[in-house]
Amino acid sequence: MSDPRPVAGAATKNKRSLRSVVPIVFAVVVTVVAFATLIDSRELVNAIASASVPLVGACVLVACFDLIVMAFKWRLLLRAFAIVVRPVVPIAAYFQSEVFGLFLPSTLGADGFRVWYLQRRGFRLRPAVSSVVVERTIGLLSSVVVACLLGPFAIGTLTGLSVTWLIPLGVGLWGLSWFAVPFLASRAGAAPRWRVWRLLPRCGALHAIRFLRSLSVIRNHVGTVTLYFALSQMEKTLYGLTIWLAAQSVHLVDVPLFAIVAATPVVAFLERIPISVRSIGIREGLYVALLSPFGITPTVALSVALVVRFVEVVRAAIGLAWWTAAGRATPASIA
To answer: Is 25 a member of any domain?
Structure first.
């Protein structure tokens, strides 16, 4: 009887290859269809050519500060996982991870690089991975609760509908989260055995259990987890400010800041769906949907997205320069 293991290995390899190809195909197809049906190339070039350089520069500064805030938050979690590094280390990891984030699906490439960055400096793999799992999951929870809190205001501004009845519900869910997160952090050791996870889809249940097992390692650091949760909610406004500045740079002066900031958590959440390289196509479609209530055409909305893409390229260029400048420095001299 032939050994089935080579066949199983080949099937697994084919699945991985397919998962790598699908995001690229998705990005290419969406781009081609958009330019063929929705985008006026001449209008797009004019919008980008007339962009305000000082406002684009302000957009770059805010986006870089956003990355520094995220690095500071991550360092809080790393200390809880007994990974003590100088402040410059997570900042360097975040900027350099932007290079890989340009070419890999969603945030997966950037997260993988940050884990490798720590492992290369002599830190154990498991706590490094756990810190990223906790970071991303709490970041997701913060996006959800901020969306609940600000969502009614965004809906009212973008659609003109009266949804004031949703405000107490949003405030209630936001307030509840301040009890739920510390509660989960303090009981993370027993939480994976709760039957409530059986109500979730299999992938959701597995991620929840993985998150709780990672969180159980730092269950004695409830204050750190709560502080991280608070900073995550504050940090969401920086991405909204980046989008608003990008809109201002292409002379969309009538776009209200609050509406953009209120809608940002939903945009950030949907951008993380790992079906495209760097969310190409997903982000652009979200920007079109976000800006169309203000009478902005898909072409001009795309110009806003391209300004944000340019900002990301600048951050990646900083990360690449940082990496190159580090040269062959030893891990001990860096960390």
So the answer is: no
Scan for tokens 């519900």, then name that residue: 169
Low-confidence residues in the chain, pLDDT < 70:
1-38, 104-108, 156-163, 274-278, 327-335
Radius of gyration of the chain (CA): 21
Q: Is 250 a domain residue?
A: yes
Residue 264 domain-assigned (yes or no): yes
Residues written for the chain: 335
DSSP-assigned letter for residue 141: H
Token pair for 186: 């303090």
Return d(Cα 154, Cα 160) in angstroms, integer. 10
Cβ 319 vs Cβ 114: under 8 Å: no
In a domain, 140, yes or no: yes
Domain range for 157: 53-326
What total number of domains does the chain contain? 1
- Considering the entire predicted model, what is its pTM? 0.81
**CA-CA distance, 22 to 175, in Å (whole number)?**
40
